[in-house]
Amino acid sequence: MVQQYIIAGFALFFVFVCCVHADYRIDCISPNKENTKCESIYKCKTFTDALKGTVTQSQKDFMKESLCGYYDNIPIVCCGTKSDYTSKRTRRSTESKTNSVIADTQCGVLVNDHLTSGQPQDYPWAVKLIYNQTLHRCEGTLIHKRYILTSAQCVNKFIANYHGKLAKATLGLSSCSEGKSCVKSALDVGIESVTIHKDYGTLRGAPHDNIALIRLDQDISFNENILPVCLPQQEEEPEVGDKVIAVGWYKRSSTKLNAELTIVDNKVCQEHYKKANYDQTVVTERNICAAGYASKICAGVSGSSLVRLTAKNTYVLEGIRSFGPVKCGDTVPTVYTKVQQYLQWIHDNIKN
């Protein structure tokens, strides 16, 4: 009973906005890079033993970073063999840099940093793509006053033939829930041209080099609702276990959503697809996988963004949604195009 009170009190240290699927014992990687399973904190002897004594700040941080989610208000943790970091953590020096595509332009900043508010200033780089024949769902990310980054499958010939030509991009779009207007801050901008990566294609059914640049037909004036995201540094490698945020609109919703996910090792990611009978799916070094117990965001659409908050409190674009599970509650990770692998291509194809 005493231990339950200790754990209940310690649960206040955790911050998580989504609920887990009942089958929570999925593969995970601990902050110490151990391959293990998500488990109820009550059944994780590593943590229950640690909580019997004095818990250090480092252990608190470790436990928060180990969180998989909640089930019936019980913390579900990535249960490894250690309750603290095995090596001293160092902050990445590259995180202090700002990597805006536009010189001297602030990027990756939220005017009002309420991660679940659904207001237009939340993630103001999120863009909806509009087609001239159907309500096909695709998204993009504003990285420049003239450019949007998206997936190639949102702008390829099949899409043009089946859904019609990409007609415009809607920026600064707020949530339309509860009968509120979603167009007050929105800006529709025409499309000048599209550049698809020359190596884009499919390998055993899975897209590769799934990235494209959309050039708008006018320069964008930034405001609190419309701001670009930062790009990662060339030498900056996102690490397994890093917390990231998926941003976008649910397929059949007008509400902008976001969810905290965790970067998953690509080999583990590949194994998840094999177990889910997607044996032909190929995850390469130019992909980044992320998983978590998101609600409707799990049914997100192509081209939406995966961002990471840096030590300088700015967001960098780590991934562009390429493919993933089609139903919520699925434990298969979502696969993103790894932006860090395409920085040179992005810079080579932007005309100021």
Describe this structure in words.
- The chain is an alpha+beta fold.
- The protein folds into 2 domains: 27-78, mini-chromosome maintenance (MCM) complex, chain A, domain 1; 126-349, Trypsin-like serine proteases (Thrombin, subunit H, Beta Barrel), CATH 2.40.10.10.
- The chain is built from 6 helices and 18 strands.
- It has helices at residues 2-10, 45-51, 57-65, 157-163, 266-275, 343-348, and strands at residues 27-29, 35-40, 67-71, 74-79, 126-131, 138-142, 147-150, 166-171, 187-196, 201-203, 206-208, 212-216, 243-249, 256-264, 287-291, 305-309, 315-323, 334-338.
- The protein has a 6-stranded antiparallel barrel with strand order 5-6-7-12-9-8. It has a 6-stranded antiparallel β-barrel with strand order 13-14-15-18-17-16. A 4-stranded antiparallel sheet has the order 1-2-4-3.
- The longest helix has 10 residues, at 266-275.
- The protein is globular, with a radius of gyration of 20 Å.
- The termini are far apart.
- The relative contact order is 0.15.
- Residues 27-79 form the Clip domain.
- Pfam families: CLIP, Trypsin.
- InterPro entries: CLIP, CLIP_sf, Peptidase_S1_PA, Peptidase_S1_PA_chymotrypsin, Ser/Thr_Proteases_Immune/Dev, Trypsin_dom.
